Amino acid sequence: MADELRQSAEKVLQLACDKNGVQAEVYLLDAEDKRIEVSGLSVENMKIAQERGLGLRIIKDGCLGYAYTSDWGEPALKLVVEQALHNAQQTQPDEYWELPEQTNAYQPMALFDEATFAVPIEDKIKLAQEMEEAAKSADKRIRLVEKAVYQEAFYRTFIMNSKGLSGEYRGSYCGIYTVALGSENQDNQTGMAMQFARKYSELEAPRIGREAAAKAVRMLGAQSIASAVLPVVLDPYIGTNFLGVLQTPFSGEAVLKGKSFYRGKGGKSVAGPLVTIIDDGSMPKRLGSAPFDGEGVPSQETVLIEQGRLTGLLHNLYTAQKSGVSSTGNSVRGSYKSTPEVGITNFYMAPGEKSPQEIIGELPKGLYVTDVMGMHTANPVSGDFSLGAAGLLIENGELTRPVKGVAIAGNLQEILMDVDAVGNDLTFFVTKGAPTLRIKAMSVSG
Amino acid sequence: MIDKKAIAEILKAAQRHGADFAEYFWEHKETVGIFAEENKIERINSGIDEGVGIRVIHGASTSYAHTNDISLPRLLEIADQAGKAAQKEAAVPSTLDFTTPPAPAAFRVEIPPQEIKLEDKTALCLSANAAARRIDPRVRQVTVSYGDVRQDVVIANSDGRYVEDSRTRTRIAVNAIAAENDVIQTGYYAAGGVTGFELFKEYSPDVLGEKAAARAVLMLSAQSAPSGKMPVVMAAKAGGTMVHEACGHGLEADLVQKGLSVYGGKRGEQVASPIVTVIDDALIPGKYGSLRYDDEGQPGEKTVLIKDGVLKDFMYDYQCAKKEGRSSTGNGRRESYHSRPFPRMRNTYIASGKTDPEKIIKEVKAGLLVTAMGGGQVNTTNGDYVFDVAEGYLIKDGAIAAPVRGATLTGNGPGTLRMIELVGNDLGYTIGVCGKEGQGVPVSDAQPTMLVKELIVGGRGESKGNGQIRRI
Questions:
Q1: Helix (H, G, I), strand (E, B) or coil at B14
Q2: Which of A323, A404, B188, B332 could disulfide-pair with B317, CB 3.0 to 4.6 Å?
Q3: Which one of A46, A64, A387 has the shortest CB-CB distance to B63?
Q4: Chain A hits for B67, Cβ within 8 Å
């Protein structure tokens, strides 16, 4: 951490603490990222970003105030303190607002990979080009590669509060993704593949390129099917998308506010016995890992659903205090500009025993879903969803032909109950992951 | 602040390595966000974000660098970084004469939100909250979010363009949650615009609260939406998510030029029913997507995209326009100094037609009436799209019947536009944030009441108890 930034943060904390009866916390982010987009083997877009800022959270007489700045000048640092206090005067008091105590429980973690940044930019461009080339040459029906992207990020975080808590870490990650476009008989289909890692050396550009191409090509000639109630197999990417919607009902805040269907369900059966869902910010190497969360609470593993039973919720210190439990280290910040909220770290469904081939092979008829549209319209409060879907038809245990232009509809709580097979192929997409999942029956409209 | 002379220096530094074009984008943004829930003001967040983005274009390559460290040495450094994407050394013009194109419109902010006391803003949120809760005892939770932003920008480029602009936007949204037994439903209403506090003269926060709560309560008793193909009437008040997804994105020039749009190469062709005219208009006063200048300093305009069913034009930014040797349509927008601009929609709508909206519903024997649309998504390469129905009703024998919930409509863009059979003489706007490439920009969209011959309704379609699909 550049010393002057840290000093500024300390100064802001001091200024806030000089006010009477104030608890204060300062959070500092210093981040840089790069993104290279290759198309037609040349660099179409390159982006270099730098962002530094601090956020100040204060509690005065039980009222919470927040303000942020990216201006490091003396007047701006004073202003941020004044603004946070001013904002606190307008919020209602709440006895549960509290800042975490000092702790020595932070686990050292290897989150930063020096070697990634030693690789010259030309090599990273070449990597994206290799991925594009691999996609293009994988099949003659690949008309073009929409984009081949390499990106990397480096970040440092510093947190300090008036109770003496102090923590700091730095981390990095990198990733590639590509979207290939296949064309045949005036039909266009896209296929996407991605890989994110802590280390540059782990990236497999040719594999990702070929995967995107294969996904595009297998969808060519897709047609709708007649409406039916069918068993549905979700590939790990789609399973992860569904899982993403669940982060809201698992939030201790949503439960407290009556916005979660998990309210009052602790210990009860809420999913099929094959379903185990975990949030774990302490996993080595994963992209959502960190020694501590957005307010300085140590990261931990929290089992949310264990073999179908609701065993935990995601908590920050506020929701934990209010619920009479301990924080699970799930206070998450979008940036220094936003207040810490309940969120996920590494959030995944535990793998099962069966291979994806077995899961598909057991079905006389079904739909293997590989793409959905409108996931962001799924309602995390009611659990209702209705999505555009595409994938492959399963007939007699085989994937027979591509399907598009259908809608799948249901309710998240119900499909979790209806999970009747879980694959052994847990795959992470950035910070979330799922294995192949089979749902006993879903409404498919064509 | 960085003055014109320093900006010229920065642009020259960016072009030192021989790039075709360099651009400076400075932004200073002051925001206030208020969040009320649990019957109280929970969070207030305010802040200032200031930063600069430098864009350099050379041939088909763009590089973009941004920082929130606004010192001349730092800016020269990132200009140089961005400029290095262009490999060759070249002569750089020694002087830059900046000129500012005249603004096509003046958006007057009557009541700047910065002049309103914070307690008046919080009072407004609490009032909307109370109004929503009065509607029905089954309203379990109400979330009100208020935001205002003042964004000052300076845009300058190596073509000699220099534009300063100040934009003020204000918005409010109410999300109500109603619960009964094991059923939880939500209702959402929002208003916002390129406007100040006068927004609330037109949109009463209490009325928004009441409408959101009434929708959540109504949805408690709604039955599952049907499933399968059927005629769909979209009411004007439902908003314009359909036009945004089914045709808007496909008419953005970057996607068209890359061969990623189903509308590519169709200029001059009949792509929609002859009663359909689609417009993207930057200049409607007060709308959420309105702009005097876009984020490349191009004056906003009213762009006719489809006229009487014939594809007339696409939406262009600087770079796409340059490729075709034409001028930009003023659609070059960005979320902030963090991102390069690309073609984005502004206020997109299907123009009103001639038919009385009530007559349109009477035309349908059995189908679905959409009275509120939620979010949507499109695959522009083949035109397949979806949008969420936030409130809908069955139509039976030309009359509005039972409310339904949980439906997404699935269609194909050009296919849907050709199947529009009747267009009403009304028009209804909704606001939204368009998330193309992960970059959010405020937009609005509108449609008149319309009849589409056939769309796939993705409901759960169960008739009571037996889990059978019902076809209509």
A1: helix
A2: B332
A3: A46
A4: 49-51
Q: What is the pLDDT of residues A73-114, one digit of tens each?
A: 899 999 999 999 999 998 889 999 999 999 988 999 999 999
pLDDT at B472 (0 to 100):
27
Q: What is the 3-state secondary structure (H, E, C) of chain A?
A: CCHHHHHHHHHHHHHHHCCCCEEEEEEEEEEEEEEEEEECCEEEEEEEEEEEEEEEEEEECCEEEEEEECCCCHHHHHHHHHHHHHHHHCCCCCCCCCCCCCCCCCCCCCCCCHHHHHCCHHHHHHHHHHHHHHHHHCCCCEEEEEEEEEEEEEEEEEEEECCCCEEEEEEEEEEEEEEEEEEECCEEEEEEEEEEECCHHHCCHHHHHHHHHHHHHCCCCCECCCCEEEEEEECHHHHHHHHHHHCCCCEHHHHHCCCCCCCCCCCCECCCCCCCEEEECCCCCCCCCCCECCCCCECCEEEEEECCEECCCECCHHHHHHHCCCCCCCEECCCCCCCCEECCCCEEECCCCECHHHHHHCCCEEEEEEEEECHHHCCCCCCEEEEEEEEEEEECCEEEEEEEEEEEEEEHHHHHHCEEEEECCCEEECCEEECCEEEEEEEEEC
- Under a CB-based contact definition with an 8 Å cutoff, are residues A421 and A437 in contact? yes
Measured between CA atoms, the residue of chain A closest to residue B121 is: A90
User: Smallest CA–CA separation between A326 and chain B, in Å?
Assistant: 21
Flag if B375 and A382 touch (Cβ within 8 Å). no
Do the Cβ atoms of B64 and A46 come within 8 Å? Answer: yes
Distance CA A166, CA B351 (A): 59
Measured at the CA of B332, the angle between CA B330 and CA B336, to 5 degrees, comes to 130
What is the reported pLDDT for B466?
29
CA distances from A405 to A219, A239, A389, A409, B390 (A): 12, 19, 7, 13, 21
Mean pLDDT of chain A: 94
Q: Residue A220's CB: how many other CB atoms inside 10 A?
A: 16
Task: Report the distance separating Cα A403 and Cα A406, nearest Å.
Answer: 8
Taking only the tens place, the pLDDT of each residue in A294-350 is 999 999 999 999 999 999 999 999 999 999 999 999 999 988 998 899 999 999 999
* Separation CA A419–CA A437 (nearest Å): 7
Show Cβ contacts of residue B452 under 8 Å, excluding neighbours closer than 6 positions: B231, B232, B233, B234, B411, B416, B419, B420, B421
Q: Give how far A11 is from chain B: nearest CA, Å.
A: 18
Q: CA torsion A123→A124→A130→A131, rounded to 10°?
A: 170
Q: In chain B, positions 178-207, which contact chain A (CB-CB < 8 Å)?
A: 179, 182-186
Low-confidence ranges of chain B (pLDDT < 50): 88-90, 462-472
Beta bridge partners of A148: A38, A178
Find out whether B423 and B275 touch, Cβ atoms under 8 Å: yes
User: Does residue B266 sit at the A interface (CB-CB below 8 Å)?
Assistant: no
Cβ neighbours of B179 in A, within 8 Å = 258
Neighbours of B17 (CB within 10 A): 19
* pLDDT tens profile B175-234: 999 999 878 899 999 999 999 999 999 999 999 999 999 999 999 999 988 888 999 999
The Cα–Cα gap between B175 and B129 comes to 9
Chain A to chain B Cβ contacts (< 8 Å) = 241
Cβ <8 Å between A408 and B62: no
Spatial separation of the C-alpha atoms in residues B52 and B154, rounded to whole Å: 9
* Probe site for chain B from A4, A145, A219, A227 (most B CB atoms < 10 A): A227
Q: Determine, for residues A90 and B227 on separate chains, whether the beta-carbon distance falls below 8 Å.
A: no
Interface of B with A in 272-311 (CB under 8 A): none
